[in-house]
Write a structure and sequence with these properties.
Layout lengths: L4 E9 L2 H4 L24 E4 L11 H15 L12 E5 L7 E8 L2
Antiparallel strand pairs: 1-2, 1-4, 3-4
Amino acid sequence: MTRSRVKIKVLKRVDPSVIFDGDVPTSPSGKKYTVCTAYQDDSEYIVGSDGLMPEGFCGWAWRDVYKDVAVLAYGGDFHPWVEKGVAITCCTDGIRPVSFHMERLDD
């Protein structure tokens, strides 16, 4: 079976102050958490036909989004209210989540 490439675009990094109504928890080092620094909004990554994590992509986020990448790469689709070949998913970091738009690239 042929595997398609998948484009991953960072939609939004959520500021923890939104989740915690301004009372942001502190990290073990004593600093207040901020938005995820692994990404910038609108950054794009391409998952090749090899299905490997793109260079520069966060390993924790990859673990969360890989299942959706695999569905798209092998031709699957999701909900009827989402365009075919597209998925919206997120990193499950409960303090500073990141939302992603993923799109199958049919070459």
